[in-house]
Structures are given as structure tokens and as C-alpha cells.
Amino acid sequence: MSTRQRILFTPLKIGTITVKNRIVFAAHLTNYAEDFLPSERHVHYYRERARGGTGLIITEEHSTHPTDHPYEKLIHAFHRRVIPYYQRITRAVHAEGTPILAQINHNGGQGSGMFTRLPAWAPSALADPLFREVAKAVEHEDILEIIQGYARVAAYTREGGFDGVELQCSHSSIVRQFLSRNTNHRDDEYGGSLDNRARLLREIIAAIRNEVGRDYVISVRLCGDELIRHGITLDETVAVARLLEADGLIDLINTSIGTATQTLYMIEASMRIRPDYALFIPSAIRKAVRLPVIGVGRIKDPIQAERILSEGHADLVGIVRGQIADPEFARKARENRTDDIRLCLSCNQECVGRMGLNRWLGCIETPATGREQQLGVGSLTPVAEPKRVLVIGGGPAGLKAAAVAARRGHRVTLLEKEARLGGQVVWAVRVASRAEFGDIVRNLLHEIEQLGVEVQTGVTATLDSVLAAKPDAVIVATGSVPNRFAIPGGDGPEVADVVDILSGAVTPGKRVLIIDRLGFHEATSVAEFLAEQGCEVEVVTPTLYVGQDLGVTLDLENWYRQARRLGIRCTPNHSVLSIDHGVVMALHNYSGQMVHFPKADTVVLAVHRQADDALYHALKADNARATNLLQQVRQVDEDLYQSLKGRVPTLYRIGDCVAPRRAHAAIIEGEQAGRAV
Questions:
Q1: Contact 201, 105 (CB under 8 A)
Q2: Are 414 and 398 in contact (CB under 8 A)?
Q3: Using an 8 Å Cβ cutoff, are 508 and 535 in contact?
């Protein structure tokens, strides 16, 4: 073990359990529940991270009361029927030698009656900014129900084999709403002073401890700063931590920042926010209490984690997205294989983003996430007879296919027509706020190098050259090309594609008009890139607002802050009809008015690309001809047929050359092709 990791892999006693290292797979939503119960998918998901060496697992939240149902796939822990499902999870995780806590919670006013047809419960009769539904201010008998609900569910978790519970008193919790002056306007013994606002939390803890006994871990996750007016401050959180320690009933303090419905973009921060951004919270709490403290917030690699521990900011580190991307994060770190870790991009596209779309949690880099039973670590079986596999295209799809095929034992050659690998990612990362997206390529390049994939760059594959190579299988991943004819006049000399700008192939003029039909990073990144160079930038889009898809990845708020700082003009609700020598004509979506935008020096297209599929279709046609010829041979000479048929390669098409989409589709199809070949 390197000296840089001397604390990270030191055991730590927490109440009645001992963790083997300081890495925590902290609580996060998965949407894996079925019929409001933990599913088999949960079992495999948590077991994979336990096998990967994490020190402690804390599950996603389990609801403690029927009035709490803010999203569809919430686990209803207030029924005894959860217990056997809990036992499946805990048996699987304990078999790997890892302790596991269950997070329990009531979301309070951060919910609605959409599912329950009941009023939301909250400290005061206020409407949450996201759900916009006035809550019922809980009465004393309701508060007693809440307390009893927490205690009841804690007992169920113990019967279900968990090592303890964590109270979610942070970003989405009725307990945090009681703690906060922003949401607690009560004038009884549960409102006003901090002691009063902390009363519910302390009564819940006492009730749980009375129910489960002293030999059961209780963790409390506190919000250090809500980042809203009259919200919880760090000083208040430190004071609450001191109160809880003095009560002597808890074993661990976890931390958080922000609220899940007002400042969510700061809880699960994207790559726009620097790593360690929330470290000031555990650092301050740890200085005030002797209880172990977990620090969270964009902790990406073991070196960063070790620094946090060695500098005394926390006793443990919560690494969630890092272990979603690579379930073997902890094991690789312990074995000093830091370069082998598949680093999280903090892109939020398939983890946080899928939650926002009410889909099950995945990962842009790791198709096995959420599919561990089918695609998890160890599921790749070596081939009995290695094939000569030719992969054409070195973007994410081709790199993933090459890596998976090589890992199975095939002899893989990858051809790329450009001088460098990476596809469109190479240019996307030129925008400073998107630089970490390059890790998707870095991770794959490291993998194919370790696996011995033969790489040839600057080579344009043709039908003749592919056939001359005599591969056993061909995977075509030739990507996509700009569609300069998507808009009449789009092929004019003053028009450029986003890649033209980012690659430097086109030098823009002073006034730039960006036409955005994608609603994602393509237009907003280029707008930021050009504005930082001094261009006057306007973005025109037919959608309700510029960057509409940035909301689910939690990039929207911070991009708009940057856009305002840079003076980027945003013009939504306009459908561009044509471009004529830098003059753009558009239709206002609602009034039907025709609008001519002032002449631009450069018009940039952020529009749908078109598949570069000519090579695939040429190979497919050749295979069809060869197959027909072989069938004719078979009719007259079976022996000759048997000797010739192996010369027709298996053919696959993946990624953008199937249909231009985002990177997650390329990675998934690369995985599928690499496994199928």
C-alpha cells in the first residue's frame, strides 16, 4: 500500500461495527423499486459495490409514513412486508464482508398528493418551490405519528439484517424542514429557537434508540448549508451536531449541501462545479465533535480522498458516482491501480439525469450499472476460439467495442481515419467547463492499451481494404457527419457546424448566431466558448428556453449564470426556416410572425447530424452477394462450400453510424457488440 493511501484503507470503528476502509457508497436514488419494495436489482447493485471493496454501504431512502410519496418508485418501508426483501440485500452484502445501513426518511413538504391523494405534511403550511403544493402544517398528533413511523421502520430494518440506519435530515426531508427557518414558521415548542427546531430530530433519534437498542448504528445526515434565504447555516448545523453528540445516542454524522427542490444542482453537482466544493461542511463539523464524520461532494479519485482524510476534513469519504461508474473503485485503489479506475465524468446524464426522467439509474460509461446480474464484473467469459476482430472508428462506440472484445480474448485491430482517437469528444472538451468529459476517452484508451488492442490512426477503411484484411468479424463505428442541408442555406460560406468551431477549422467573425435544435451541450458549450473569446453571441432555439435538456443533468442554472456574465443572448420559441448570407429568417412559434435576425458574421449550426454509414452498407451488400454465391456453390459442392463460408465476416454496426445520438448509446452498443462478436 502506498503511503498516500495510509488513512483511506485504515479500519474505523463506528458504533458496534468496524469498516475496513473509509470509502462509503452513500445513499442515492436508484428507481429500482418494484411495487414499492426493494427488488432483485437492488441486491445485485449493492453486492457488486461490496465485492468491489467499499467500506460501507448506505442504501437509498426508505419511506417511513404513507403521507410520504414524492416520486413513483419510492420504497414503502412502513409495511412489514419489506423485511424479507431487506434480508436478501443484507445477506448478499454481508457475504462480501461489508456492513450496510438503511437510510430512512419522510420527504415532508417536498412532495405532493399526486400519488397518495393525501396532503403533503410539513412543519408549516407552505408550498415547496418545485412541487408548488401547499402542505398541511402537522399537528401534535401528526408529529407523534412521524416519530413512531421512524421507530417502526428502524425496527423493520434491524429485523431485515441491516447494521444500522441513517436518518436523512438533509436535502429532502421533513426533519430538515423543521430545522430550517425557511420552512419552519411554527410558534410552538417545535419552532423558533434552534433547540426547538431540533426537537423533532432528537425525539426521533430517542424513539429509534428505544426501539432498536444500543448495539445498532444510527447515522444522521445533516445539511450544512441550504443555500437559500433564511435557510440552514453552517453555524446552526455545527450547533445541531454538538447537541446530538451530547445526547449520546448517535454514532455517525454524514453531510450534505443544498435542498433537493431549490438548489439540487449543488447537491449532485456536475463537472461545472469544482471537486471538493462541499468540503467546508464536514471540515467544520469534524472540528466541533468527536463522532466520525463523512465528507461528500465530487470526490473523484483515491488521491483526492486521501488528501481529504489526511488534512482532517473528514473521517470517511462518500464516493457515489465514482462507484456507480466503477464498482471496483475501492479494490483498485487499495491495490494501487489508480490508473485502472474508470473515473466518473460528473456528466449526470445517465445517473442523475435518468432519475429526473423517472427511469432506473444507469451510467454513461458503464452499461452494467443497474444490470449487474447480466453484465456485472466477471460476466465476460473468455472465448474458446479467438477471432480476428476489426473495429472501424475510434470514437466512444468503437473504443468500447474494442475493449470488450479484447477482454474476451479476441485479437482486435482498431482503425481510425483521424490522427487521434476519441471522435467528437476530442472537440467537446475544448470548452473549459466540459473538460472532464474527456475522461470517457481517457478511460477507454487506458483500457485498450492494457488489453493490447492494435491501433492504427490516420487510416481510412474502404471495402477493399477491409476485405483484404480478412477479419473474422467487423464492427463498424464510423460515427456521424454534420448535416449542412438541415436548414436551407446551411451550406453557405458563412455557416459552420459546432465541430468546425471547436476544432478551429473555422474562425468565427465578431457577431455569431447559433441555431440550436438539440437543446443540450452542443449549442450552450459553443456559445460559452465563443463568448469567452470576445464574440457577440446569440442562441436561437425552437424550444421553450435555450439549453432545455440541461435541466436533467443539473447544468442549467450554472450555465445561465455564466451566459449572463458573458452577455450571451438567448432567444427561444423561434423555428429557423432559412439562412441567406448570414441573415437568418425564423418563425415565432406562437404568434406566427416572421422574424429576420440581424446579419451575422458567422452562423453556427447545432443541429442533428447524419449517420456516416456508407462503409457499413457497402460491406453489408458485399456480404449479401458473397452469401448468395456461397449458396450457389453449396448446391453443387458441399465440401467447397464448407471451406469458403468462413471467409464471410460477421458484421455489426454501432453508435452514431446507426443513428446519431448521445454518448451513452455509443457505449451501450459498443458493449453489446464486444460481447456478441
A1: no
A2: yes
A3: yes
Separation between Cα atoms, residue 611 and residue 480, nearest integer Å:
4
pTM assigned to the model: 0.95
Q: Enumerate the β-bridge partners of residue 55.
A: none
In which element (H, E) is residue 156 found?
helix 140-159
CATH code, domain with 116: 3.20.20.70
**Nine-digit cell at 32?**
429500482
**Chain centre distance of CA 417:** 31
pLDDT digits (tens, 9 = 90+) for 223-277: 999 999 999 999 999 999 999 999 999 999 999 999 998 899 999 999 999 998 9
Domain that holds residue 109: 3-375
Please state whether beta strands 583-588 and 574-580 pair in parallel, antiparallel, or not at all (unpaired): antiparallel
Confirm whether 381 is domain-assigned.
Answer: no
Give the whole-angstrom CA distance, residue 388 versus residue 178. Answer: 64
> One-letter amino acid identity for 426?
V
Name the band, by pLDDT with cuts 50, 70 and 90, for residue 1. very low
Pairwise CA distance, residues 606 & 547, whole Å: 11
Residue 4 has pLDDT above 80, yes or no: no
- Distance (Å, rounded) from C-alpha 541 to C-alpha 546? 6
Are 308 and 189 found together in one domain? yes
What is the rounded average pLDDT of the residues 450-460?
98
CATH of residue 560: 3.50.50.60
**Residue carrying the nine cell digits 491501433:** 455
d(CA 167, CA 102): 9
